[in-house]
Amino acid sequence: MNMIPTNEIDLVKASSSKINDVDFNNLQFGRIFTDHMLVCNYKDGKWQKPQIMPYQPMTLEPSARVLHYGQAIFEGMKAYKDDDGKIFMFRPDQNFARLNKSATRLAMPEFPKNYFINGLETLITLENEWIKPGKGNSLYLRPFIVATEPAIAASPAEEYSFMIICSPAKAYYTDPVRVLFAEKYSRSADGGVGYAKAAGNYAAQFYPTRLAQEKGFQQIIWTDASSHDYLEEAGTMNIFFRIGNKLITAPNNDRILDGVTRKSIIQIAEDLGIDCEVRRVSVSEIKAAAKDGSLKEVFGAGTAAVVSPISAFSHAEEVFEISGSEDSYASIFKDHLLNIQHNISEDKHGWRHKVC
Amino acid sequence: MNMIPTNEIDLVKASSSKINDVDFNNLQFGRIFTDHMLVCNYKDGKWQKPQIMPYQPMTLEPSARVLHYGQAIFEGMKAYKDDDGKIFMFRPDQNFARLNKSATRLAMPEFPKNYFINGLETLITLENEWIKPGKGNSLYLRPFIVATEPAIAASPAEEYSFMIICSPAKAYYTDPVRVLFAEKYSRSADGGVGYAKAAGNYAAQFYPTRLAQEKGFQQIIWTDASSHDYLEEAGTMNIFFRIGNKLITAPNNDRILDGVTRKSIIQIAEDLGIDCEVRRVSVSEIKAAAKDGSLKEVFGAGTAAVVSPISAFSHAEEVFEISGSEDSYASIFKDHLLNIQHNISEDKHGWRHKVC
Ligand SMILES: Cc1ncc(COP(=O)(O)O)c(C=O)c1O
Ligand SMILES: Cc1ncc(COP(=O)(O)O)c(C=O)c1O
């Protein structure tokens, strides 16, 4: 990794704030951005000094490689405020590590850790007012790297921009969602880039997801591309199944994004004495469990939605309703996570990262 | 398809030309652009009036969806000049059809045909001086569409830009290349977006290609992602094998880009009475043919390189040199194509499209 000796960041403050124009009770996800952003450019073989500046449009050559060859990766994180006004991130070291795993797979230069952590901390501190206390409120943080070099040969760029933009958020996907198990389309191949948070992975899902929506299902649960027999993950969430009192989730492989929420839930399950198996989950097993009534819950896990209950799934034109359970694991994990994130409960694994 | 009644294009000419600064004998692919570009924006559910304007940087919000979710597709075409100064495109209807196939798969709006063809014609006519006669010289044309809408929710954009930029070119990959047959990494999945000219497909290849280059191989021939037993295509070229006097190329499927050069070569082979089989090509068959001396040629086919001979391949740590042949099919097809493109020979299938 490309460690940088200094942690200095150039700062140009916005002359005024847009915050008074924002209706915090009616936030649509990802459309409103705070007053500042962080930019750090890569050229001449190294990352230059990061700059925090007023949020503004960027200038890109029409030949910038990101527009043609999709060299673009991102992360999704949140900052949370407790009732005393203290601000925290959740396991930012995990997002940092994943960013560089994505960078390597997309032939992009690794980003230095001190720039990542200090950059986030400085930016979040500056945007303090944008973070509202209360469970479910947060500041969504979007670090990303794009290839800016103006050259349309199909090869890795020599110039990049790392940026962080911030958007105030409430939890989204609050209603239970109905999902389709993928039978024809796939999200990623063995030996592909599915485990990277690569921009291209998302656009590839839009069309099949739109077809699913036309049938009344909001999301797709992706299956392995070779056989479509094993359930993997959703578009922006990892997936858990509860059969009886046992939790099951697919193992990581090169098609699946190694979610921070997923790995935290696996740990919380262990802490709470809930049996959790990490193993391949077959479509036929889940259908059988739905039929015999032992499938109690299915839920997604991801930073944006935290935990998102799934109320029905469809496969081979058959629809299965999932009743849910009184002692819902989904709510237990969601509460548990939010309590750690908002500094309400004990943080025995050191997941909270205090910002200010 | 979204047909637009008018074919008008707004035109703002550059005040001066950069052409005198360009060394046409030393062109590096895709780094120099002509004086103008075409821009057509999609908003409020329709494509707006196209504009030709001086080539210039574009302004993009940091939250533009293309930067986060990879909604970006492109085409690669060329304009050719004959010795009388007449200018032609080659089968632009094919690129148009493929652009919209890509658009559909990436959940982007289809682009109207008259804007595509008239836009190209108007722009090429304006850049007449940039196109040099002589086989191998051309103006590379890069139509592309990117999602510009400023919103970082993972769903299809409502705003896009279609653009065309142009770069003067000589044929590239002139030396025979050495290739690696993919054994671990893959380019695309069944049910994925491999058949679309989607930006993300390219970035996904850079890292494995870099590893191949470190071993002394310039390109990878991708195999099917499930078994790695069947040869599919290269990074920016379809692939042909010649065993004895028979040509073989893989059939199109949802992992393979339906190349215009490939389909033209299949037709030329038929015209010339060369036996060409379109069927699955196994790695073991090609290795066996290399061993018994019947593998005469392997070559790539694509707009940028036209026809690109391959001199060696490696699989399972074994390297096979391909001797080549006196009556090289690669040269026959290359000449045949260039002669049609440059208006030297008869165009019996109506592939030339006269611009001016
Ligand atoms: C494809 C995919 N799977 C799973 C997740 C969940 O990961 P995390 O819990 O780190 O947010 C995400 C990201 O949000 C994702 O994009
Ligand atoms: C992946 C891929 N395969 C094949 C080709 C060849 O297609 P065409 O002959 O239309 O240029 C290209 C494009 O250049 C490509 O990007």
TrEMBL record, chains A, B:
<protein>
    <recommendedName>
        <fullName>Branched-chain-amino-acid aminotransferase</fullName>
        <ecNumber>2.6.1.42</ecNumber>
    </recommendedName>
</protein>
<keyword id="KW-0663">Pyridoxal phosphate</keyword>
<keyword id="KW-0808">Transferase</keyword>
<dbReference type="InterPro" id="IPR043132">
    <property type="entry name" value="BCAT-like_C"/>
</dbReference>
<comment type="pathway">
    <text>Amino-acid biosynthesis; L-leucine biosynthesis; L-leucine from 3-methyl-2-oxobutanoate: step 4/4.</text>
</comment>
<dbReference type="InterPro" id="IPR043131">
    <property type="entry name" value="BCAT-like_N"/>
</dbReference>
<comment type="pathway">
    <text>Amino-acid biosynthesis; L-isoleucine biosynthesis; L-isoleucine from 2-oxobutanoate: step 4/4.</text>
</comment>
<dbReference type="InterPro" id="IPR033939">
    <property type="entry name" value="BCAT_family"/>
</dbReference>
<dbReference type="InterPro" id="IPR018300">
    <property type="entry name" value="Aminotrans_IV_CS"/>
</dbReference>
<comment type="function">
    <text>Acts on leucine, isoleucine and valine.</text>
</comment>
<dbReference type="Pfam" id="PF01063">
    <property type="entry name" value="Aminotran_4"/>
</dbReference>
<keyword id="KW-0100">Branched-chain amino acid biosynthesis</keyword>
<dbReference type="InterPro" id="IPR036038">
    <property type="entry name" value="Aminotransferase-like"/>
</dbReference>
<keyword id="KW-0028">Amino-acid biosynthesis</keyword>
<dbReference type="GO" id="GO:0004084">
    <property type="term" value="F:branched-chain-amino-acid transaminase activity"/>
</dbReference>
<keyword id="KW-0032">Aminotransferase</keyword>
<dbReference type="InterPro" id="IPR005786">
    <property type="entry name" value="B_amino_transII"/>
</dbReference>
<comment type="similarity">
    <text>Belongs to the class-IV pyridoxal-phosphate-dependent aminotransferase family.</text>
</comment>
<dbReference type="InterPro" id="IPR001544">
    <property type="entry name" value="Aminotrans_IV"/>
</dbReference>
